[in-house]
Specification:
Strand content: 15-25%
Number of strands: 11
Number of domains: 1
Order of helices and strands: EHEHEHEHEHEEHHEHEEE
Structural class: alpha/beta
Low-confidence stretches: none
Distance between the termini: 39 Å
Largest sheet: 7 strands, parallel
Mean pLDDT: 96
Strand order of the largest sheet: 3-2-1-4-5-6-9
CATH architecture: 3-Layer(aba) Sandwich
CATH topology: Rossmann fold
Number of helices: 8
Bound molecules: NADP nicotinamide-adenine-dinucleotide phosphate
């Protein structure tokens, strides 16, 4: 699954951990020049050095940060691939007890972050003549579960933004793939539960979750299809997970 054109550049947002880091490593191994973006710049710099990529600090919730990231990236040459991966969840509360700041974080990061990055890089992706946008949504974009409305609503909105582009970009040389993962063991639950490691570990208790490399392998497959092949939506879950809120646990 090598990228035959080694001059292609792929941007990965949220590349400092989990799925984004794994995607950056996989795409680099396939011959892409990878531009890594995240707020924890020391992490992306270390990964970039290992894989021969480029790191630029990026906060997808900050317009000026996105502008600077995109300006630095496009100044270096054409951009073929955008992996909209930065995102996550905060909190686990019923609507009655919803924390408005948690909701704002989830909507700013997952929804408006994807909008800012996509809007800003789209002209370069079109100009490349063979662009690809992969957006990592979730099974939370396909259903809902108790205490998860902040996250499921943000992932639904992010997904609808991505899916709308599929029609709007017809006739343009840009492919669009939505990846909807179930449970993947990353820093996701640690972030969701504000660093509470026990609570985060309990999410995966009795289940064999997906790992970040499982998703990166799929992203690598998508990115190396010929330009006429568009994988619209890929749903991938652990065997023991039926949907966003239904998991079988071994006790
Ligand atoms: P993770 O290990 O917590 O990674 C999240 C990444 O997003 C980090 O690199 C983080 O980097 C970045 N990020 C967060 N806020 C950002 C911001 N404002 N600007 C730029 N980057 C930001 O979790 P993950 O599981 O790999 O999550 C990746 C994506 O997969 C997310 O969109 C998540 O919703 C989705 N997803 C995860 C699962 C799961 O079970 N793990 C399932 C379905 C979908 P910095 O903190 O360094 O900025």
């Amino acid at each position: 699954m090598a990228n035959t054109d080694a001059s292609k550049t792929a941007v990965v947002t949220g590349a400092s951990s989990g799925i984004g880091e794994a995607c950056a490593r996989t795409l680099a191994a396939q011959g892409f020049h990878v531009v890594l973006g995240a707020r924890r710049v020391e992490r992306i710099e270390a990964i970039a050095q290992e894989i021969g990529g480029t790191a630029h600090q990026l906060d997808v919730t900050d317009e000026a940060s996105v502008d600077a990231f995109v300006a630095a990236t496009t100044a270096a040459g054409p951009v073929h691939v955008l992996i909209n991966n930065a995102g996550g969840a905060k909190g686990f509360a019923p609507v009655l007890e919803a924390d408005l700041d948690d909701w704002r974080w989830m909507w700013e990061t997952n929804v408006l972050g994807t909008l800012r990055m996509t809007k800003s890089l789209l002209p370069a992706l079109i100009d490349s003549g063979d662009g690809l946008i992969v957006t990592v949504t979730s099974v939370a974009a396909l259903g809902h579960y108790d205490n998860g409305a902040g996250y499921t609503s943000a992932k639904h909105a992010q997904a609808l933004l991505h899916r709308t582009l599929r029609g709007e970009l017809l006739g343009k040389p840009v492919r669009l793939t939505e990846i909807c993962p179930g449970m993947v063991e990353t820093e996701f639950s640690l972030v969701r539960f504000d660093g509470d490691a026990q609570r985060a570990a309990d999410v995966y208790a009795g289940v064999t979750p997906l790992i970040a490399d499982d998703i990166a392998e799929i992203v690598g497959f998508v990115a190396t299809r010929p330009p006429h092949v568009n994988l619209d939506q890929i749903i991938v879950k652990p065997r023991d997970q039926a949907d966003a809120g239904r998991v079988h646990r071994q006790h």
